[in-house]
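From the methods appendix. Each design record in this collection lists the tokenized structure first, followed by the designed amino acid sequence. Records were kept in a plain field format so they could be parsed without special tools. The example shown here is representative of the layout used throughout.

RECORD:
FOLD TOKENS (100 positions):
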């Protein structure tokens, strides 16, 4: 994770990039191990809520947060690590917060 200025807090974009990376690691035959770490002095500060305040739905004016779309959007990228056929190492540095 590479958002050290925000303590590697998760955004929907970061989660999508993480999911793509895991998928790519699973497809590459040369990958022997996956190491997940956070750049800087914090592994992850959880969800970045201040950057994702949501917006009103254009049709009915209802509030919709990017985090409300699906729980899988939040947990799916991490759960997909379980499907890899290589060892996965979490190189934890500093705080590791779930949820934000």
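DESIGN:
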């Amino acid at each position: 994770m590479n958002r050290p200025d925000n303590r590697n807090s998760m955004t929907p974009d970061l989660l999508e990039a993480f999911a793509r990376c895991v998928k790519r690691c699973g497809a590459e035959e040369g990958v022997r191990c996956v190491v997940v770490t956070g750049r800087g002095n914090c592994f992850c500060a959880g969800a970045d809520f201040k950057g994702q305040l949501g917006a009103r739905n254009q049709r009915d004016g209802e509030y919709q947060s990017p985090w409300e779309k699906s729980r899988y959007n939040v947990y799916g990228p991490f759960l997909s690590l379980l499907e890899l056929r290589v060892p996965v190492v979490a190189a934890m540095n500093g705080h590791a917060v779930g949820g934000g």
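APPENDIX NOTE: The mean pLDDT is 82.
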